[in-house]
Specification:
globular; D-Maltodextrin-Binding Protein, domain 2; 15 helices; about 400 residues; alpha/beta; three-stranded parallel β-sheet; seven-stranded mixed β-sheet
Length: about 400
Amino acid sequence: MKNESNLTGWFRAPAALAGAIVLLASACGGPATVTVAPPTAAPASTQAEPAAQDGVDRSRLSRELSIYNWSEYIAPEVVEKFEAEYGVKVIIDSFEDNESLFAKFQAGGNPGYDLVVPSDYMVEKMIRAGMLDKIDWANVPNISNVGAAYLNLYFDPNQEYSAPYFWGTTGIAYDTSRVDGEITSWRDIFDPADAIKGRIGLLNDQRETIGAALRYLGHSANSTDPNEIEAAKNLLLEHKRHVAGYYDSIVARDNLVAGDVVVAMTYPGDALVAAQQKSSIRYVIPEDGATIWQDSWCIPIGAPHKYTAEVFVNFMLRPDIAAENANRLGYPTTNSEALRQGLIDPAMAQDKTIYPDVKAWGSRLEFLKHFEGDTQALYDRAWTEVGVGQ
């Protein structure tokens, strides 16, 4: 894995992507209006059944299930419930960004994982690279609990390879007790006040961090213009002296709580956990635009235990389980049935930084696009020259 004005109009989504954003907007204005519909690609028989009659053939279940996921991106209590209910041991390894996930599979194929959790654009990239297997929706009837707004999006238009997990934005968390005034935009990061210089944390994520620099410069985070990408690289190089470090979101969260940084680029779930530990921490979606993302459960080609993986995904799509997971981690769920049933903590469901009004944000929220060839090489080269981690 894996939304967001003075720059209104600088991004124009392709027709399919724009349609996806409009669909997403229709569901995110408020939980009461969210609709439930299965993906158009799913068989007509995939209607949700009670957990006690889940139709699982336990004789086909494996003893273990291996998952490659973002750090701390599933509630331990939920994993324990699955293990107890099905007698399957779940093993989880973690990656820091989508590019690391792709590189792991590009290097030598599937090293033995049954499930992976890429973000939208990486789902598309992995599909094109032949890395993902199609999901048998007959084994995942709870897909019907996912709202139509989160299905058939640009990266998997026929809903064949991915089951929606969490969605959200990439924004800024800051400690209000240590910052004068409010942080509202990328301008506050890239043209920082003296008080926060050297105390800024950015994500160790090529597309997100270069994308933030591009937005500050007035461009789309999906720019393919070599001059704009070069300008973003130069900005990051100049700005590096003000940055305390480039972290994954978990480290950024912990550093924010510890006071090692006072402003951090991060995700809403990590910001919420930080705020629970330190009430002065606040999360904002930058007014000049941000990434909207949707992470998905996917089964890689060569998964040793495909059936068990599908049973696990079906378990995660139960409204009670999806709600427990979302409430524990602080990320917005794609499980509209959980919202409809009022299972999501009202304080979260009504928080517009967690569940933003996507329609109101309009073109300021971008899904990151999948790149290959010369364009991806431009981003790779820029990131290498910025020298994160060097």
